[in-house]
Amino acid sequence: MHEFVPQDQEVLADVARWIGERLSGPPEVAPHRSHGPHDGRAALPELTAEGVGTAAAWETVRDEVLPTTFPTDHPRYLAFVGGAPTPAAVLADAALSAASVYGGSELEAGAVVAAERAAIGWLCSAMGYPSDAHGTFVSGGSLANLSALVAARHGRTSASGRPPGVVVAGASAHSSVRSAAETMGCEVAVAGTPDAVLRAADVEAVLAGLDPSDVVAVVASAGATNTGLVDALDEIADCCSSRRIWLHVDAAYGGAAMLAPARREAFAGIERADSVTIDPHKWLFTPFDCAAVVYREPAVARAAHRQSAHYLDAVEGDDADNPADYAVHLTRRARGLPLWASLLANGTDAYVDAVERCLATAGYAAKQVDTSPVLELAAEPRLSVVLLRRSGWGAADYAHWSSRARFSGLGLVTPTTYAGETVLRLCFVNPRTTQADVDMLLESLETLLDERTG
Ligand SMILES: *Cc1c(COP(=O)(O)O)cnc(C)c1O
């Protein structure tokens, strides 16, 4: 089954054709092909002892499996946080799979490690981190947050003689922060109020009741997923540094907005964080999965994460630059390579333009909502998140419209809760989302009510 037979060449050509078609225009979602969470168990062929062959398997993937998805780079995928990879990134990613690169160490990965290091270096310089800051790419923001908190706790003992046991997190912190804390056996002390900027005073109020030696870290958000809010990083950094407490900034979604000069100010202080999470697979145009965790002082993270075993002796030289050493992983995909290849291909200015385009589209959407007789902003747009309400609608109406939009192939837009109220949330991370796409969605929101009341 490892032999690459002549018929496989034809499959390869078809895969290449399919990828080309997929990249050359906005993806289409055929009405009723997209399956929801409970109807995704389509009638797929059974696995058999003999197998159907590479060509038939590919045809099934192409015709039966992939068309049931709602791709995140669809221009009207505005739910959660989408992702719209560049062709340069997709092609490098596809080749990476074929190259069988073990991305954990320099020994096998050669210049791939240097390419990933350069991509990490670009992220660090965007944040204003020192030139010796470093980190690695992991599967997602969740693993990045866990890795950072493990590094924050490494080698420390609280006054009680045990490792520190409390993670202080803003009320808008991503769910993965709580999950990381639970994985580590830590408690979470919540600071501030949901859907509001976390300020130093909120953090101080929580720290006042804690023994600083028992605090693993303070976690602030730079772009809360639900609202796009950026916490008051500079003053929180003051509060942490005066108490010698580790500051982790979760910029998984929002960090990309730092590239836009007009937005940079909001991130002031991020360069003082001990560690930062930023996900290129969200708003920096790489395929899933690609998230970065970076450390101002990488030696601490390396001490926390480097695994040791006899069979690893060959890769354990003290000056080795091994991406495995900076997170909770060992074997890893060199998932930073597609980001690097795309930066090389497109240049860094194109990233600034693409991020600014998303911000401008969010601004356009907010303006259209504002002038609509039946739509209303639930909050001023922050970064590229727009929260809106439809007059007269309750939770069931939003859910009904959202599932109709998905099944008809119009778009993927889901409701959320903001300040205790059900609202619709639009998150713009695809530079190919146009004003016409926004108009289409907003018009549908307006006409559906007419249909139901008329
Ligand atoms: C998406 C997100 C995460 C989790 O990232 P995954 O890549 O989904 O694991 C963490 N923090 C924030 C702020 C996010 O937006």
UniProtKB/TrEMBL annotation:
It comes from the Bacteria. Its cofactor is pyridoxal 5'-phosphate. GO terms for molecular function: aromatic-L-amino-acid decarboxylase activity; pyridoxal phosphate binding. Keywords: Decarboxylase, Lyase, Pyridoxal phosphate. Signal peptide: none annotated. PROSITE patterns: DDC_GAD_HDC_YDC. GO terms for biological process: carboxylic acid metabolic process. Pfam families: Pyridoxal_deC (PF00282). The modification N6-(pyridoxal phosphate)lysine is found at residue 282. PANTHER family: GROUP II PYRIDOXAL-5-PHOSPHATE DECARBOXYLASE (PTHR11999), MIP05841P (PTHR11999:SF70). Belongs to the group II decarboxylase family. This is Glutamate or tyrosine decarboxylase. The lineage of its organism: Bacteria, Bacillati, Actinomycetota, Actinomycetes, Propionibacteriales.
